[in-house]
Structures are given as structure tokens and as C-alpha cells.
Amino acid sequence: MPYRLLRFALPGKYPEPRMFRTPDALKSSYDVVIIGAGGHGLATAYYLARDFGITNVAVLEKSYLGGGGTGRNTAIIRSNYLTPEGVRFYDASVKLFEDLSQEFDLNLFYSRRGHFTLAHSDGAMRTMRWRAEVNKHLGVDSEVVDPNFIKSKCPQIDLNCGHNMPVLGALYHPPGAIARHDAVAWGYGRGADQRGAEIHQQTEVTGIKVAGDKVVGVETSRGFIETNKVLSAVAGWTPSITEMVHLRTPLTIQPLQACVSEPMKPWLDTIIVSGSLHIYISQSSRGELVMGAALDPYEVQNMRSTLDFVEGLCGHILELFPFLHDVKILRQWSGLSDMTPDYSPIMGKTPVEGFYIDAGWGTYGFKATPICGKTMAATLAEDKDHELIQNFNLARFENFNLVGEKGAASVGH
What is the pLDDT of residues 399-412, one digit of tens each? Predict the structure, then answer.
């Protein structure tokens, strides 16, 4: 047994503190209240403290830290999007991710793998070329590659795809990576806590008090809090929060399912995505194959897994990797995706003064965690939308100024 484990097991007092403090009670007022202790909410609290010195912050979570989308996603990080707005935003996030382990002094298991988006038709190849050109123009490393290149990077793949939909090529994105999603939340949570922010778990927001179109406080299951700035960062539960301030959004909530296999010896060094087959697959540091598919085709706030999902997914996985036929599924789960009509997020100020929104993340919220926290912190501190998120504001749906990201976000998690 490693000495470090023995050192923890035998002494009565442990030499290292807990990851976070557990505040005894809510204060009567805070400068900022953040609803949702997932990656986005915690990252915002962290950058508010680090970059702007705003530490009188309460992060409220009705369940436990990282228990929503942050703990249920499949941890893929990339920036090979289709629109200039999306590429700039996610590329900034990738750059922040690269240094987070060192910044937090915490191993996030960040692993650069390379990301393949497979094309099975001439139409898909045209989209890949389009994305590659947009990416290159903005300094993001992406290129269209042929089947021989794909085979050289992933020898186990069957490019004939079971003679169903042969692979014609792919968009290859070398910076594509994976990371340990719960550790990202812990790192931001610990950093925010160490700088003075308070994280209150098991604290449900039951109402937001508005007077004269201005936020003046938050009702919780543990009492009332005075504040004039509230950020909603609750992903699939956003409609229940926006209702409290009588704010309408075009969000729809749909389940997204995923699963992992039993652990295997490492063989899949890359991330493989197929929009035509509606699947994606990577291998974790523990050897599990992490697999997922497209959104369930119905609007419901339900996190129940289904047999239909895993049967359909495994059928398509076997078309690409037939040798996996006897590998067992270890577990499956579901999360909630808050989808917008243009597949881009809703971020920034709202018509209700002091109420800010961070929503519409669909299937691509984890990879945005660092840059979302940084830009939302700046927006809260300066009371104006950060330049990177100005095109993602809620008003775009009223002005018909949409950011059409479906071609790069629909299944390419």
C-alpha cells in the first residue's frame, strides 16, 4: 500500500483539509447569488474572486456539488465549431483547460486525444470542409482527412461500417481532449471556497424577489437572502428559475443518455464521433469506453435510462468496432439538455435588472466550463456582457440574429 494512503488511514488527524468548507448558515445578504453548484456556477464564483476581488458570493445548490450535468456528461473538450462566434468562444475554453491542473494543483486527468468527426456522405464531407476552413481562419487546428489517415490513427475501426454507411473521411481536430469532469467542479469549488465564496449544498431556491423590474433577493429552503445580482446556472432546470422572474426563453429540455463499458486495456487513443450514426466514443483513463448518442426525441425533465437507447447505440458502435461484440456495458445514465433553436447558449444580462442567465448548453456545456465562468464573472462584475458572449444574449431570438451551430453541435459532444 502506498505510504500516502497509510499516512491518511492511520493518524487520528488527517494532514490535509477537506476539499470545501461547509458553511453553518446563510448570511442575510450577498453581493452575488449563483444558483447551481455545477462547473459553470463554481467557475463563475472562482473568477469573480480571483479576477475581480468579489468574494461575498453564495453558490446555492439544491442537491450536491456537481450533481447535475457536470457529473453526467462525457467530458469531451474541443473547439472545432462551425460559426466564428462558437469557434472563438470554445477555443478560449480549450486554452484555459490546458493549464487548469497546474492552476488548481489538482490532477484533472486532462488528456489530449485528437477528435475525429466522421463523414459518411458527400453532404457530410462538404460540412467538414466548411468547418475546417472556419477553424483554420480563426487559428484553430482542424483539417479534413481521408480514410487512410483515420485508419492510421485508429487501426481497430471498420471503415466499411458494416457495409451500411462507409466512412468517406473526417474532420480531424488534434486539440480534442477529455478530462475528469467531477474533478473540474471540485477544482473550481475549492478555489472559490479558498477565496471566500460560500458553497451551500442542499439549499433549494424557491423564489426570486423582484421589485420594479430589479432583483432584490432570493427565497431559499433555508431562508431569505438579500442581493441585487443573481445568476441562474442550472442547465436543464432553467425554466423553473426563469419562471420566478417571469422571463420567457425558447429553451426545450430533452434527455441525453450515455453509458460506459467494463474496463479494457487501452486501445482507443482518439475520440470518434459520427453525426450520421448519432454516436460518439472515447476511452477513459480507467479503461472504460465512454459512449453516447443523440438527444432523446421528446421534451421531458426525466433522467431515466432506457433499453432502447443502449440497444441502438451498441448496434452502431459494433458497425464501427465489431470486435467489441462481447464487451459488457457496466452502467448507463441520463442527464438533461437545455436546447436552444440555434444550438448556441444563452448568456449574459436579461430584461430583469440584476438577473443574469447561463443556459442553453444542450450537449456541449462541459467543454465551455472555464470560459463560461470567466466571461460570466466579468459580466456580473461590470454589469455588461463580455465581448465573447455578446452574440449569445437572449435578445437574439427577438431580433432574429441567431448563431446557427447545429452543424457542429448536434451530436459531436
Answer: 999 999 998 875 55
Superfamily of domain 112-176+252-339: D-Amino Acid Oxidase, subunit A, domain 2 (3.30.9.10)
| pLDDT, tens digit (0-9, with 9 covering 90-100), for 236-254 | 999 999 999 999 999 999 9
pLDDT tens-digit series, residues 258-314: 999 999 999 999 999 999 999 999 999 999 999 999 899 889 888 889 999 999 999
What confidence score (pLDDT) does residue 17 get? 72
User: Which fold, 26-73+182-250+342-409?
Assistant: FAD/NAD(P)-binding domain (3.50.50)
H/E stretch holding 124: helix 122-137
Q: Residue 406 corresponds to which cell in the numbers above? A: 447545429
Note the pLDDT tens digit of each residue in 306-337.
999 999 999 999 999 999 999 999 999 999 99
> In 3-state terms, what secondary structure has residue 252?
strand
- Tell which residue, 352, 279, 356, 355, has the closest CA to residue 313: 279
Phi-psi region of 354 (alpha: psi -120 to 50; beta: other; left: phi over 0): left
Backbone dihedral angles phi then psi of residue 41, each to the nearest 5 degrees: -65, -45
Instruction: Give the phi and the psi of residue 2 in degrees, each rounded to 5.
Output: -60, 145
Residue 353 DSSP one-character state? B
Return the domain boundaries, the chain.
Answer: 26-73+182-250+342-409, 112-176+252-339
388, HSE (Cβ side, Cα atoms, 13 Å):
19
In the chain, what's the furthest Cα-to-Cα distance? 65
Confidence of residue 16 (pLDDT cuts 50, 70, 90): low
- Cβ–Cβ < 8 Å for 66, 37: yes
CA atoms within 13 A on the CB side of 307: 0
End-to-end CA distance of the chain: 38
97/385 Cα distance (integer angstroms): 22
Residue with cell 453553518: 24
> What backbone torsions phi and psi does residue 91 show, to the nearest 5 degrees?
-65, -40
